[in-house]
Amino acid sequence: MSRRNGSQRTVDGEQTQDTSFASAGIGVARGQEMYLDSVASRAVARAGRNSQIKGHVQEIMVVDKLNADPFMRGQGVKAQLTKSPTAQTADIVKVRPGKPGVVERIQIKDVTSEAGARQLGKRIANGKYNRATMKASPETIRQLQKTGAKCPKPVQSTGVSSDTSTRVATRTGAKVRGNDLTRVVARDIGRASGNAALVSAGVQVVVDVVTGERNAKRIATGAAHASGEAGAKTAAALSVRQGAIVAAERVGSETIKKVVRGSGATTVIFAAVEQIADTGRLCAGTIDLDEYARRSGANVGGSAAAYGGAVLGTAICPGIGTVIGGLVGGLAGSSLGRGLVKWFQE
After folding, report:
1. Closest C-alpha among 43, 41, 63 to residue 55
2. What contacts 24+ positions apart, CB below 8 Å, involve 266-269?
3. Residues 202-238: pLDDT tens digits?
4. What are phi and psi of 10, to 5 degrees?
5. Residue percentage of the chain with pLDDT more than 70
C-alpha cells in the first residue's frame, strides 16, 4: 500500500523519500570522487609532487579510459604509461601483452594558456610528435584553435577536462600552477554536481514509468526533486572536501594531509552531508526518530560498503570499475544498514 504525502511517501506504514533515487546520482558522484582519489595517488607515485603533475593526472585518466574500451580489450590490446615519466615523444603506448612491438604511441597535452598553446602548436608543426597520435584536453584543443596554430596532424580530444585534472592535482600536495585555481575547481565541482543531478533525474523517471506512474506532472516533480537533492548534496560534499584539502595544506601536518587526501575522507564527507540533511528533516518534523535511525544506519552502511566496493572495482578496472563498485557497494550497504536498524527496532 503506497500513498504520497507532500515530499514523503508512506509504504506499509514506513516513511521513505520521494527523492530516494537521488542516491543513484550521489552514488555515482561518490564513486567518481574515489576514482579521482586513486588517480591522485598514482600520479604522485609516478612523478612525485611536482608542478607538472596535472599532465600526469591527464595521462593516467586517458590510460584508464582506453583500457575500459571493450573493443580494444576484445582485440587483446592494452594501454600503459611509458616507463619514463619524462619521455619526450610519447606518454602512453598501446601493446599486446606477451607480444613484441608497440601498436600505437600517444602523446598527451593539457595546456590552457595562450602562450602554452602557441608553443605546443609550433612543436606539432615542427614534427616533434610525428611518431605519436596527438591527444589533448578539450580546453587545449580550443586554445590551439583560438591561436590559429597550424597542426599538420589532427589533435584528438582526451575527453578529460583540464578543470578535472587541475582539481585532482590540488589534492596531491603539489604546487599547482594557475592564477585562478578557485574558479577552475568550482567549475569542475559544478560539472560533477550537474552530472549527479542528471543521473538521479533519469533513474527517477525510468523507475516511475516502469512502476506504472502515468501522471506527467508527478513524474516531472519526482525527477526535479531527485535531481535537486542529488545536485545540492554532491556540491556540498565536494565543496567541503576541497575546503578540507586546502585547510590541511595550511595546517602542515602530514598525517592530516594524508587522511584528507584519501578515499576514506570522501566516503565520510558524503555520509556526513547525508546525515546532516536527515538531521534537518528530523528537527523539521518531516521524519520521526525511528526513520531517522534507519537513515543513519543506511548512511553508515552505505559509506563503508561504498569504500570497499570502490577499492575492489579499482583493482578490476580503474575508472569505470571504481564508479560501479562504489555505486553498487554504496546502495547495497545502505540497504543492509537500514535493514539492520529496522530489524533491531522490531
Report:
1. 43
2. 266/30, 266/33, 266/34, 266/37, 266/241, 267/30, 267/34, 267/303, 267/304, 267/306, 267/307, 268/303, 269/237, 269/240, 269/241, 269/244
3. 988 998 888 888 788 888 888 899 899 999 999 999 9
4. -105, 120
5. 93
Q: Which residues contact 142 (CB under 8 A, 6 or more apart)?
A: none
Cell representation of residue 251: 595546517
The H-assigned helical ranges of 68-113 are: 70-74
Contacts 24+ apart (CB under 8 A), 241-250: 241/33, 241/265, 241/266, 241/269, 242/167, 242/170, 242/185, 242/189, 244/269, 245/170, 245/171, 246/170, 249/173
Q: Does the structure show a pLDDT above 70 at 15? A: no
With beta carbons less than 8 A apart as the criterion, state whether 287 and 281 touch: yes
Cα 170 to Cα 261: distance, rounded to the nearest angstrom: 10
For 88, residues 6+ apart whose C-beta sits below 8 A from its C-beta are 128
The CA distance from 22 to 199, in Å, is: 8
**12 pLDDT more than 60:** no
Residues 6+ apart with CB under 8 A from 228: 19, 197
Question: What integer is the mean pLDDT of 9-24?
Answer: 54
The C-alpha cell at 169 is 592535482
- Are the C-beta atoms of residues 117 and 144 closer than 8 Å to each other? yes
Q: CB count, 10 Å around CB of 197?
A: 26
Q: Rounded CA gap, 39 and 58, in Å?
A: 9
pTM of this structure: 0.85
Average pLDDT over residues 15-34: 74
State the average pLDDT over residues 166-195. Answer: 86
CB 286 within 8 A of CB 8: yes
